[in-house]
Amino acid sequence: MSRPPYGIIAVLMVGAFIAFLNNTLLNIALPSIMRDLKVEPTTVQWLTTGFMLVNGILIPTTAHLIQKYSVRRIFLSAMCLFAVGTILAGTAHIFSILLAGRMLQASGSAILMPTLMNVMLVSFPVEKRGTAMGVFGLILMSAPAIGPTLSGWIIEHYDWRMLFHFITPIAIVVILIGFFIIKDKKEKVDLHLDFLSLALSSFGFGGILYGFSSAGSKGWDSPLVYGTIIVGAVCLTVFILKQLKQDRPMLNFRIYKYPMFALSSAITMIVNMAMFSGMLLLPIYVQDIRGISPMDAGLLLLPGAILMSLMSPITGRLFDKFGGRILAVIGLAITTATTYMFSKLELDTSYTHLIILYSIRSLGMSMAMMPVSTNGLNQLPTRFYPHGTAMNNTMNQVAGAIGTALLVTVMSTHTETRAKEIGAAAKATMGHATQPPTAEALAQMKQEILMKATLDGINYSFMVATGIAAVALILSFFIKRAKQASDPGEVKPARKAVTHKLAEN
Prior knowledge:
By secondary structure, the protein is mostly helical. It has 2 domains: 6-193 and 250-427 and 442-486, Growth Hormone, Chain: A (Up-down Bundle); 194-249. Helices cover 81% and strands 0% of the residues. The protein contains 18 helices and no strands. The protein has helices spanning 6-37, 41-44, 46-58, 62-68, 71-90, 95-123, 126-157, 162-165, 167-181, 195-218, 223-245, 259-289, 294-322, 325-342, 351-378, 385-431, 439-476, 491-504. Helix 3 (46-58) packs across helix 6 and helix 6 (95-123) packs antiparallel against helix 16. The longest helix has 47 residues, at 385-431. It starts with 5 loop residues before the first helix and ends with a helix.
């Protein structure tokens, strides 16, 4: 095998790193954005779910793009989209412009990550792929290590828009380096994008996600909520059936006939749904309920992120040696247990306890995600790698977005219910009081009720996330070490070779 193109991989990794860093920067900033732009949690979560929705819609096109265009052209286009989105988000003074900037960033990020994954898969043999993916994970996972702490420091000293301003020059420099370093060319391929499939996938994934996201503010009985979910489900069903009938599908669902890929895809989707509970709910708990500064909130997430990034190459080596099942079972057992412990948060849970718990949870995640994903991809024939990476990235983004929307909706709905219950109990208590409470006492009581109800809502969401993680743990027991399947397109040549060898004997 020829020497891997380390120069191209390095430039792609830097681009992917800043895209990933930008996403992790925003989690700590969400409470500040809520206050500044005067939006509710169910609205601000669209900065996360909207980003993942655009990823989910566009990633299916990446298999088509990778086959049709050169890495140079895809990379430069993706980075330009990301840079324009970053500039727009950094100048936003209303939520809609900020969301539009995030959507543009997502369109660049969606194309970038599968391109890098495909270059990695093609560049390294199966026996070295776990280690290579581990190093790749180390670099990318250092973004969550730097992101929250850097974000907290910037928000304490500057406006939250500075999160985008400091990324902009880095993105421009990466575009210039990529322009001069990446020189690969590709012969013209006669492939045409199926716009009907793109529309069906957009309405399918978009409808389901919009329904889940809107349930928190409009209620599950709203026609808009269940109507968009039904429309989304119908469009998605038609989209899948259409892809199965096509010779060159936009998203190749036939790869699910490989059992280890299908299993790994299901597990990583479920884990992604549970994972975002910690990323989204913990900053709200720490800053809004506990009143901890953004800087300290970022520092709280730092040890877990460092542990995750350090574990990535170790996990890669362990995967090459022992396979995916043992790592996945241990990792998901840790993830499930720690997610359950997060459902027991109190108004005075210690800062140290939160750091330790989040760090152990991150350890569990790092042990599970990469081995499970790599094991599934290893079973695919080489020509299906672009489809495998596109499918994984699409389903993980969509699952993460639905998980985020679901858990925020569960939190908001339970918070509202608990606020009414606690408020009714408080009114009953006041009815027996000899003197009516002062306006100041009433205001303080309302604040206490809201904090207690929000805490109950967060705990309830973590309990739902525990159940989701437990499903992934059960599925992990069925993992087997994958061997690369023979390519259906290469069956005849293989048979000829066997026949020729038998004739010689």
